[in-house]
Write a structure and sequence with these properties.
heterodimer, A: mainly alpha, Four Helix Bundle (Hemerythrin (Met), subunit A), 4 helices, elongated, B: mainly alpha, 0% strand
Chain lengths: 134, 100
């Protein structure tokens, strides 16, 4: 399986929590969102490539039992990534609101905590699927 | 210097003010806690990954004026399902393969 920056996910959790607990400025929050976006894109694109490759093999009639098992795992993994995408977008939306209303900063914190929790699940799946660091 | 100490040095170099330093050390703690992941590959590869990521984080931390200019609308992401749909793949297709 193509390598991705698995360890990078380890940076999202503390980066987001740091932003929530120590500094809720828009700039810090944007930095966290940027890193989150970059890591999500890297991981999700790898998963999409892998699923597409296996589906092509199935269409060609050359799929192996190992690929089928991997597809099952990737199918479960993508559910977590979909949730992460939703949480990430909710976080960015909360940031947009926070830019115009200081009363809404609690929403940013909640969304950041949701992202952090999902990051842990993503790390577990990367381990299960044997996705390695670069 | 062991890999963790090298990483600590990199993160401390990135973090110039107290607030960022606390964040950087927090990152190191999280990485150290990932013992299972650290055990999966050769140390050299892991350090290479650390340094590459440290560069990304460093770039973000060192350019606050650039970050100011970023339009939040560009930070939204697309779901995996939406990306797969562009390749003509949906859950029905995947399930049909898994159930075959």
């Amino acid at each position: 399986m193509k390598n991705i920056k698995l360890i990078a996910w380890m940076f999202i959790v503390p980066a987001l929590l740091f932003m929530v607990t120590a500094c809720a400025s828009t700039n810090k929050a944007k930095q966290s969102a940027m890193i989150s976006q970059q890591m999500y894109e890297s991981t999700s694109n790898t998963v999409v490539e892998q699923i597409t490759e296996i589906v092509k093999a199935a269409d060609a009639g050359t799929i192996t039992s190992a690929q089928k098992k991997t597809l099952a795992d990737l199918s479960e993994f993508k559910k977590v990534l979909n949730k992460y995408a939703e949480a990430h977008n909710a976080y960015v939306t909360a940031l947009k609101i926070a830019e115009t209303s200081s009363a809404k900063t609690n929403d940013v914190g909640k969304q950041a905590r949701d992202l952090a929790a999902l990051s842990s699940q993503i790390i577990d799946y990367c381990n299960k699927l044997g996705i390695k660091v670069l | 210097m062991n890999p963790n100490e090298k990483l600590r040095a990199v993160l401390l170099a990135i973090a110039k003010d107290d607030g960022q330093k606390a964040g950087a050390l927090g990152l190191l703690d999280a990485l150290s806690a990932a013992a299972g992941i650290l055990a999966t590959g050769p140390t050299g590869l892991i350090v290479k990954g650390f340094l590459s990521l440290a560069k990304t984080v460093s770039s973000a931390l060192k350019n606050p004026t650039e970050i100011d200019k970023i339009d939040l609308n560009t930070l939204f992401v697309e779901s995996v399902d939406a990306k797969l749909k562009k390749n003509g793949i949906d859950d029905d297709k995947i399930n049909s393969i898994l159930n075959a």
